[in-house]
Design brief:
Layout: E1 2-6, H1 10-21, E2 25-29, H2 33-39, H3 51-60, E3 64-67, H4 70-75, E4 79-82, H5 97-107, E5 114-118, H6 126-134, E6 143-147, H7 157-162, E7 166-170, H8 174-183, H9 185-189, E8 193-197, H10 199-230, H11 234-242, H12 263-276, H13 282-305, E9 314-318, H14 334-343, E10 347-351, E11 365-368, H15 371-375, E12 380-383, H16 395-398, E13 405-408, H17 415-420, E14 424-426
Parallel strand pairs: 1-2, 1-4, 2-3, 4-5, 5-6, 7-8, 9-10, 9-12, 10-11, 12-13, 13-14
């Protein structure tokens, strides 16, 4: 099939590369000329395992193309995926201006029947509004608007595309559903479940899924809080809970709180939608509030570890992205923790496998190119992100300080083993 991905960011680029790898002809479009120029050279703008290799392979096979020409790319395509950003506005609504700008461009370039697919995460009823914009006399019977939410995890996006838990297609059009099912047939044949729902249902499935996962993370974080008071290891609690098939073990890992491009944005947008339709989503509201305040609990914990003495104390952060496997800094807990510690007088070093971050360009914050330099002479090492290279560190080798303290925000280490090594170790909910 001939596919056009409008927006060559995370969702558009990963999905476009994967669709081309299935044998389709894909054009990824973006208004940013530098991004398109680099992509045509095989240089990807984001850190995602295996993506660059996938892009280069399909560029060579002439199945994957990159262009700034939106109009011609639309005209040449059978299926158009809208993959632009939907950031949060100040009132917590999803900002849909980029989506509607794309829709207006599609409207003026509908030269034959096309399927318009929202891959971007959009509030319920957005598809209805898109349909209304496109529905002119000239464009009658030339299109179907479909919701096809993405469920890609940063760091594992290619695998999630190739082996999805489910493929959700929101449309009441038999024609559009048949074409979309045919597009995804290689994945369906591998065992992926294909679900056809109404368009509004598909839009809500995405928000409901992310809100539920955010709730699981927040729930185990709050359980960790009470475990610390009762001298209980939250790992035992999470294991005991997770063995119940109705609950499951995934996302029952306490930490510094959820971040990234999805959970914070989508939970806020869901609340905004519920307010619009006069429905009280009290659980989701509490999840947002609890996660927003989590950094305060962690700062208090760090204060106790350092006996409330921050002035000129050297603290090292291992990882600053919101999770391992990505260079994404959006809503990372480190964005709240590091400035607070600086304000208290601490000296901050960090090591991040994906390199230095523009968010931390300051004379008081030092980015190191390796773990040894980052941890040298540190009084407190904070494991913030669960990168694999942080899971088997020899702390005594990388830091000679006999009073070294380790605050493991991801619970990567065994408290008993750290005690044997005579390292002052602190976990979350332990």
């Amino acid at each position: 099939m001939k596919i056009c991905m409008i927006g060559s960011g995370y969702v558009g680029l990963v999905s476009g590369a994967c669709f081309s790898d299935l044998g389709n002809t894909v054009t990824c479009v973006d208004i940013n000329k530098d991004i398109i120029s680099n992509l045509n050279k095989g240089i990807v703008p984001i850190f995602e395992l295996g993506l660059q290799e996938l892009v280069i392979r399909n560029l060579k096979q002439k199945r994957l193309f990159f262009s700034n020409d939106v109009s011609n790319s639309i005209k040449r395509s059978d299926i158009i995926f809208i993959c632009v950003g939907t950031p949060t506005k100040k009132n917590n609504n999803a900002d849909l201006k980029y989506v509607y700008n794309v829709v207006k461009k599609i409207k003026s370039n509908l030269n034959k029947y096309k399927i318009i697919v929202t891959k971007s995460t959009v509030p319920v009823t957005t598809g209805d509004k898109i349909e209304k914009i496109l529905n002119t006399k000239y464009n009658k019977n030339k299109f179907d608007v479909v919701s096809n939410p993405e469920f890609l995890r940063e760091g594992e996006a290619i695998r999630d595309f190739q082996y999805p838990d489910r493929i959700v297609i929101g449309t009441n059009s038999h024609k559009a559903n048949k074409i979309m099912k045919n597009l995804y047939l290689p994945l369906i044949k591998k065992g992926s479940r294909y679900i056809n729902t109404s368009r509004r249902s598909a839009e809500l499935i995405k928000y409901a899924s992310n809100a539920y996962l955010a709730t699981k993370i927040t729930y185990i974080n709050e359980m960790a809080n009470i475990c610390e008071k009762l001298n209980i290891d939250v790992h035992d609690v999470a294991t005991g809970m997770g063995l119940d098939e109705r609950i499951g073990s995934r996302f029952l890992r306490p930490g510094p709180g959820f971040g990234g491009s999805c959970f914070p944005k989508d939970t806020r947008a869901l609340i905004s939608t519920s307010n619009k339709f006069n429905t009280n989503l009290s659980i989701v509201k509490t999840v947002i509030q609890s996660n927003d305040n989590r950094y305060k609990l962690l700062i208090n914990r760090i204060s106790k570890i350092l006996k409330n003495k921050f002035k000129n104390r050297k603290i090292t952060f291992l990882g600053v992205t919101f999770k391992a496997g990505t260079d994404d800094m959006r809503e990372s807990p480190a964005l709240k923790l590091i400035p607070k510690l600086l304000k208290k007088g601490a000296i901050i070093n960090y090591y991040e496998p994906t390199g230095s971050k523009k968010e931390f360009i300051s004379k008081k914050i030092m980015c190191n190119s390796n773990i040894h330099d980052a941890c040298k002479n540190s009084e407190l090492i904070i494991i913030h992100t669960e990168w694999n290279e942080f899971k088997q560190l020899n702390f005594k080798k990388i830091n000679k300080n006999k009073n070294l303290k380790v605050f493991d925000m991801r619970n990567l280490y065994s408290p008993s083993e750290m005690l044997k090594s005579k390292i002052k170790y602190f976990g979350v909910g332990r």
